[in-house]
Amino acid sequence: MTYLETDRLHFITRKYFRDVVLETLPNSETDWYNGYRSWLAEQGCEIVKLNPGRDFVVDILGVAPGYDKFAFANERDATLFLLRWS
Hints:
Elements: E1 2-5, H1 7-21, H2 29-42, E2 45-48, E3 69-72, H3 75-85
Antiparallel strand pairs: 1-3, 2-3
């Protein structure tokens, strides 16, 4: 498993998601949450909470930037994701 920090990358991907993908979704927090995760999964990415026993303030998409991680099953997907969203 390859992990990337969510701090800066999350804000960049969240902006793209808001500007492009969100328009196609219903006006529902649950749909936004699930839509963001589905969109990330298409890129081979999932959000992992490495401190599941601790409570953090999360954004509308359920991510605690700087604490949660982007996780990838293979390094190739992580590299492409990093190159695309850096």
